[in-house]
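Example 3.2
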Amino acid sequence: QVQLVESGGGLVQAGGSLRLSCAASGSTFSINAMGWYRQAPGKQRELVARITSSGSTNYADSVKGRFTISRDNAQKTVFLQMNNLKPQDTAVYHCGAEASASFWFGRGTQVTVSS
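Structure, written as tokens:
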């Protein structure tokens, strides 16, 4: 089992920045990739950004050029730097961790961007 705890969400004005953190614990040796997902009210959860253990990244088109995902393998932590935030970025952001046969989500942190 893997436990994921997110932090860093909050309320910010459009154009502002936030940095999310996700700390993993438990059977972290099994993790192949980690990512950030978000779910806005009335919408499905979507992938925002993902990073593999080798450092390869991919992003949703809507956040390319504004968000950056990074990880600290030693500390088992993944970060999401979010710049130039827009009201449409408002959502609950969940950290996700992938293993060969399992997937885990954290409880999430709320990000609210005011116009």
